[in-house]
TrEMBL record:
Signal peptide annotation: 1-26
Domain of life: Bacteria
PANTHER family hit by this protein: THIOL:DISULFIDE INTERCHANGE PROTEIN DSBE, THIOREDOXIN-LIKE PROTEIN HI_1115
Keyword terms, alphabetized: Signal
Keyword Signal: yes
Organism of derivation: Shewanella sedimentimangrovi
Entry protein name: Redoxin domain-containing protein
Coiled-coil intervals: none
Pfam families: AhpC-TSA (PF00578)
Residues of the Thioredoxin domain: 44-181
Keyword Nucleus attributed: no
Amino acid sequence: MLKRKSQLMKLLVASLAALSLGQALAEEDYSAEGERRAKLAGKGLLGTTAPQLLIKTLDGKTIDLSQLYGHKPVYIKYWATWCAPCRKQMPGFEALYQKYGEQIQVIAVNTGLSDDLKSVSAFKDKAGLSMPIAIDDGTLARALNFRVTPQHLLINKRGEFAYVGHEDDGNFYRALEQVIAEEAPEVAPTPSVIATQIKGYDIGDKLAPISLKSIANQGFSVPAGNSVGAPATNSASLPSTSSAAKETVLVFFAPWCEWYLEQTEPLTSKSCTLVRQMLESHGTDSHGTDSHSTGSSTQWLSVSTNLWTSKEDLTEYQAGHGAVGPIIFDADGELFARFGVTQVPTVITVDQAGRVTDKVDFRQPDFKEKVTALFSKQ
């Protein structure tokens, strides 16, 4: 556990408080922070034209949002089974669908992060949800700037982003009723560029060039085995402090995984703790030398999700876990998509030739054994 937590961490931990009064106050602070982050994420979207998107639901149907623009408004709720406020809002969400479902296209989009078809389907049945439900692979999050859970997104009949928020409050319901009441335009709008799906790398695939920048502004290059394809980068032509010939281990994680998921997803929480402890143990040798440094034959890079995470949060996290090595903030979600990562933790190894040689996530039955072996051979 961190010696000091960021404001977000304090709020999320406090939201799990057992005392009723303390819990109510904590949830109020938590909701306010979620609202702030959601508004910040949606600031650049409001008033702009929504993109063309095909959303596949659990029942096998496909919703083409571009066919709705100009005729029917859209409400997308971004959520997760492990998210406490999402769970709290679900009865009201179902009631909203029953009341407005004929007037607005309602879609529940699961984050896909530390969730899968099994967990989402089980939650759907237990909660009695009847609206269309989809599981994101990162495409929707990138296209619609989803950054918190829950996050509400309204698209009006003109096909424009009309509202983004986190709280299930009066402001949201007024915006909902407004997009329903508005007249449809005489001419259907032209949607913005189609949001493309990125096929993630799998074992045996060769990487296109990748340049990365840590939260400490260090530059890193991951070995490239394929010169074809668009390079992935979160740096602005930053000089690399690492050799392109190094084997690279990428640890995909969420800084809140261990403590926030401790009650709702204990297996995920324990898996995150296991990987972090191994990373810390591997990171510093008996002489106190950081094996993540440029002198090591293998470079270890931790890649953080952008969900409920900011660069400031990661700075706080690294202050408490310095031996985890360099941290890359995947601000736009491209790296998670590029490597096909939907679960945290996921550990990926890239050899010196730029080929993916291993990809391990906590859902695998032999996860602990595989991770232990992976860290042992480095």
